[in-house]
Design brief:
heterodimer; A: globular; B: mainly beta; 7-stranded mixed β-sheet; 4-stranded antiparallel β-sheet
Chain lengths: 116, 107
C-alpha cells in the first residue's frame, strides 16, 4: 500500500503557476514533517523543501533553486500537503514526490512539464 | 549547502560480485547519511539510514558504513534485482542534498 498520493501535475507555460497536492494515509499526519523531492527527466534527485508540523511551528525550508517561487503548506484536517509553484521555469520540469521527513515513504509522484 | 560526491558514477558488475559505492560530504555530517536505490521508472527506495542502519525489509546483503565525511554502501553479492541507480543523501543540514548517483549495470 502506498501511503502518499501526489496529484496536480500537468503542462504549464513558463512563468505560470501550479499547485500540487499530496494526500497521506497510514500514519499520524499531523505530527509528521513533510518534504517534497523532485527528479528531472533522466536526472538525479533534488530536495525541494519541507514543512514542519504545527506543533513545531509549521515552518518551511526550501532549496535554493525554488526559494521565493515555491511555497509548501499543509492541511492537517485533510491529511494533505501542498506545493504551490509560481514563476515556473523550464528547469522545474520534473517528477515531484512528496515524502515524510525521513524519506522512507515514496508515492508515484506527479509530473510537471514547463514548456511553451 | 553541503555537497555530496559519489563515486563511481557508474560501474559494471556481474552477479555474485561484491560492489562498493562511496559518498563524500563537503562538511562533517556525523552519521546523517542515507542510501537509496532507484530502478528504472520506479520511485526511490530507502535502503540504509543513519549511515549503517538497514531499513526494514531490505536484504542484508546491503550494508553501509562511515561517519563524518566519508561513507560507503556495499552489496555483498550482487543479485539481478540489484541492478539500479544508487543515491546517497545527507540529512544533517537543510537543504538536504543528494549525490549524483551511481548506476550499477550488468557486465
Amino acid at each position: 500500500e502506498v501511503p502518499l498520493v501526489e496529484s496536480g501535475g500537468g503542462l504549464v507555460h513558463p512563468g505560470g503557476s501550479l499547485r500540487l497536492s499530496c494526500a497521506a494515509s497510514g500514519f499520524t499526519f499531523s505530527t509528521a514533517w513533510m518534504s517534497w523531492v523532485r527528479q528531472a527527466p533522466g536526472k538525479g534527485l533534488e530536495w525541494v523543501g519541507r514543512i514542519k508540523s504545527r506543533n513545531d511551528g509549521e515552518t518551511t525550508d526550501y532549496g535554493a533553486p525554488v526559494k521565493g517561487r515555491f511555497t509548501i503548506s499543509r492541511d492537517d484536517s485533510k491529511n494533505t500537503v501542498y506545493l504551490q509553484m509560481s514563476s515556473l521555469k523550464s528547469e522545474d520540469t520534473a517528477l515531484y514526490y512528496c515524502n515524510t521527513e525521513d524519506l522512507r515513504n515514496w508515492g508515484r509522484g506527479t509530473l510537471v512539464i514547463v514548456s511553451s | 549547502d553541503i555537497q555530496m560526491t559519489q563515486s563511481p558514477s557508474s560501474l559494471s558488475a556481474s552477479v555474485g560480485d561484491r560492489v562498493t559505492i562511496t559518498c563524500r560530504a563537503s562538511h562533517n555530517i556525523n552519521r546523517r547519511l542515507n542510501w537509496f536505490q532507484q530502478k528504472s521508472g520506479r520511485a526511490p527506495k530507502l535502503l540504509i539510514y543513519a549511515a549503517s542502519s538497514l531499513q526494514s525489509g531490505v536484504s542484508s546483503r546491503f550494508s553501509g558504513s562511515g561517519s563524518g565525511t566519508d561513507f560507503t554502501l556495499s552489496i555483498s553479492s550482487l543479485q539481478p534485482e540489484d541492478f539500479a541507480t544508487y543515491y546517497c543523501q545527507q540529512s544533517d543540514t537543510v537543504p538536504w542534498t543528494f549525490g549524483l548517483g551511481t548506476k550499477v549495470d550488468i557486465k
